[in-house]
Design goal:
It contains twelve helices and nine strands. With 282 residues, it is α/β, with parallel strands linked by helices. It has a seven-stranded mixed beta sheet. Strands 1-8 form a two-stranded antiparallel sheet. Helix 9 packs across helix 10, helix 9 packs across helix 12 and helix 10 crosses helix 11. Keywords: Cytoplasm, Methyltransferase, RNA-binding, rRNA processing, S-adenosyl-L-methionine, Transferase. GO terms for molecular function: 16S rRNA (adenine(1518)-N(6)/adenine(1519)-N(6))-dimethyltransferase activity; RNA binding. Belongs to the class I-like SAM-binding methyltransferase superfamily. rRNA adenine N(6)-methyltransferase family. RsmA subfamily. It catalyses: adenosine(1518)/adenosine(1519) in 16S rRNA + 4 S-adenosyl-L-methionine = N(6)-dimethyladenosine(1518)/N(6)-dimethyladenosine(1519) in 16S rRNA + 4 S-adenosyl-L-homocysteine + 4 H(+).
Length: 282
């Protein structure tokens, strides 16, 4: 079994397959041997699980998941990587690589085909430039997955896992909490990768809820209010929602006051329950 976190091994593999890292795909390979085992352990993976991975790279995390899970399916957009992965993962008969863009992939169909009879978890080192779109696709499609354990940029982790009413709270943190219970597990230094990124990373975990914590009369309307509120963070919630939705300021102000909030309340001071009520009132 090749040591996929060894820099010399990585260089040899890449040279043999004529592979060069792509900035466009946000590729940084893990060279810290402790990271991926820690991620898989935190995910609680065992033989009752099928694991969906996004962006397997050269297979460092894939290998760790395959050692524990019944089956691993990895979606990779870079068409240069499957031949390399065929070599690094040759000893595993429970791994399948699917070439494609995860944002355009029918994940519900994939899970039905590949993980029948298994519990499903997502474990991934997500491309930092499309972290939010991938997470929201996984959540909004209401896939039959139990958890998402993912490495992301630390700044993104702080926003995604921000507590309602905190300074870092935003549209993404509220949307995530509607579908899941998020937490930051641990941080990862730039030196854990080659080439080292310019930012610190963090591993987060989202445990999907069996049902949302609030029940809006119109889910789409609630999220429209949330997006409007955070589209102009420097404004008060009343001004931002009024401008974002094209509603009379007096109407929005009355709705905010009905929640017992003052006219100068900021968007980040409102909770998911507040936004649910605002969506219904508006």
């Amino acid at each position: 079994m090749p040591n996929l976190t060894d820099l010399k091994t990585i260089r040899t593999l890449c040279e043999r397959h004529g592979f060069a890292l792509s900035k466009g795909f946000g590729q940084n390979f893990i060279v810290n041997p402790g990271i991926c085992p820690k991620m898989v352990e935190a995910a609680g993976i065992d033989r009752s699980f099928g694991v969906l991975e996004i962006g397997p790279g050269i297979g460092v995390l894939t290998k760790e998941a395959a050692l524990r899970a019944a089956r691993v399916v990895a979606v990779e957009v870079d068409e240069r990587l499957p031949p390399l992965l065929a070599e690094t993962l040759a000893e595993f008969d429970n791994v399948k690589i699917i070439l494609g863009d995860v944002l355009k992939t029918d994940l519900a169909g994939l899970i039905r085909r590949e993980f029948a009879g298994l519990r499903v978890a997502v474990v991934a080192n997500l491309p930092y430039y499309i972290t939010s779109p991938i997470l929201m696709k996984l959540l909004e499609e209401r896939l039959p997955i139990e958890s998402i354990t993912a490495m992301v940029q630390k700044e993104a982790a702080d926003r995604i896992c921000a507590a309602p009413g905190s300074r870092d709270a935003g549209a993404i943190s509220l949307a995530v909490r509607y579908y899941a219970e998020p937490k930051v597990l641990f941080t990862v230094s730039p030196g854990s990768f080659t080439p080292p990124p310019k930012v610190t990373s963090a591993v987060i975990q989202l445990r999907l809820r069996p049902a949302p914590p609030v029940t809006p009369g119109d889910e789409a309307r609630m999220f429209a209010v949330i997006r409007a509120a955070f589209s102009q963070r420097r404004k008060t919630a009343v001004n931002a929602i009024s401008a974002g939705l094209g509603l009379p300021k007096a109407q929005v102000s009355a709705a905010v006051e009905a929640l017992g909030k003052g006219p100068l309340v900021r968007p980040e001071q409102l909770t998911l329950e507040d936004f649910c009520a605002l969506g219904d009132l508006l």
